[in-house]
Design a protein that fits this description.
With 84 residues, the protein is α+β, with helices and mostly antiparallel strands. It contains 2 helices and 3 strands, in the order βαβαβ.
């Protein structure tokens, strides 16, 4: 079995209203060192082992459902889980 951690973020060229609001709020809470916040999402998948290439499968999952390719970027980490 595989555990896949997917990290989705807005592309740098896309305005992040949530991040802007968080930046302002943190500065008002006396964290002036915070200059910018970008908000994203974290998705965790558990996949059974198959004959398919796991990286190709994860890319297809991300492109097909989890990520809006127009405004978001993604990266992922794959960890093989050993049954105990």
């Amino acid at each position: 079995m595989y555990k896949v951690k997917v990290f989705v973020t807005l592309k740098e060229s896309v305005i992040d209203p949530q991040g802007s609001a968080a930046t302002k709020a943190l500065q008002k809470l006396d964290f002036p060192e915070v200059q910018d916040v970008r908000v994203g999402k974290y998705i965790e998948l558990k996949l059974e082992k198959t004959d398919k290439d796991i990286e190709v499968t994860v890319h297809n999952i991300c492109k097909g459902l989890l990520v809006n390719k127009e405004v978001e970027d993604y990266r992922f980490e794959i960890e093989e889980v050993v049954a105990q």
